[in-house]
Amino acid sequence: MAQAKKRGLDLLCFGEAYLHGFDGLEWIYPQDLSRALSQDGQIIHELRSLAREHGVALSLGYIEKEGEDIYSSNIFLSSGGEIVNNFRRLSPGWKIAEADRSHYREGEDFSVFTYQGKRFATAICGDLWYDEHLNRLKTLDFDYLLWPLYIDYSVEEWQIGVKQEYGKRLRELLVPTLMINSSSGNKKGARGGCYVFWRGQVLGELPLGQTGILEVNL
Question: Cα torsion at 187, 193, 199, 203 (round to 10°)?
Fold first, then answer.
C-alpha cells in the first residue's frame, strides 16, 4: 500500500482468494466457516482502515461468509475505506465437487458500480468461460472489467497458446479487461502476472511468472 501511494496509484488490485489463498479451505464446513470473513468483521475493517490511511482503493479476493453461507468473493474498497462493491463468483470451479452446495454457494448476478467516474464490473476466474455469463456481461453498461483469477499454467504453456485463447475468449467484450492473477509462492501454483485485454489484443502486461505492479491508466 505504501508503495502504491508513493507511485501515485489510485487503485491496487489483487487476484482471486488473495486473503486466504486459493487452497485455503479444508472443505470441512465448521472449519471453513470459522476461517471465512464477513464484510463487517475485523479483517475487512482493518483493510478499510488501511485503504483510508494510504488513500488508495483496494480490490481483492477473499472467502466470504454471510450467515451460514460461504462464497468466493471480491471486495472493492474506496480510498476512503468504504465498501463500494462485493461480487460473489458465479461459477462453481472454486470448490470441490463434494462440497455441500447448501453452504458453499455462488452469487446470483453481475453488478456494475461507479468509482471516480468510471463504471466497473467484476468477474472471477471461471465466470468468463460460461457462455451465459459472458452473454450477460455483454448486456451491461460499464467501462472496465476487473477479472481476478487463479491460474497455474507454466510460463511456456501460457506463452505458446493459452494467452491467445484468453484473448480470443474476451474478444466479444467491447471494454478492456484487467486480468489479475494470484501468486502462490510455490512452483506448482499460480505464478502471478497481470494483463490488459481488449478485443483480443494485449494492451499491457506484467508477464506471467513475474510478481509486481502493472500500472494502467484508465
Answer: -140
Alpha helices (H) in the chain, listed in sequence order: 2-6, 29-35, 42-54, 131-138, 155-157, 163-170
Task: Identify whether the C-beta of residue 194 lies closer than 8 Å to the C-beta of residue 214.
Answer: yes
CA atoms within 13 A on the CB side of 9: 19
Which 3 state secondary structure label does DSSP give 78?
coil
Helix or strand or coil: residue 35? helix
d(CA 199, CA 197): 7
Q: In this predicted model, what pLDDT tens digit does every residue of 7-20 receive, in sequence order?
A: 999 999 999 999 99
- Across the beta sheet with 144-149, the strand order is 112-115, 118-122, 144-149, 177-181, 194-198, 201-206
Is residue 106 within 8 A of residue 71, CB to CB? The reply is yes
d(CA 49, CA 58) in angstroms, rounded, equals 11
Instruction: Dump pLDDT digits (tens) for 84-96.
Output: 999 999 999 999 9
In sequence order, the 6+-apart residues with CB closer than 8 A to the CB of 211 are: 183, 192
- Homologous superfamily (CATH) of 2-206 is Carbon-nitrogen hydrolase (3.60.110.10)
The residues pairing with 38 across neighbouring beta strands, listed in sequence order, are none
> What type of residue is 90?
L
pLDDT (tens digit, 9 = 90+) per residue, 108-135?
999 999 999 999 999 999 999 999 999 9
Q: What is the pTM of this model?
A: 0.96
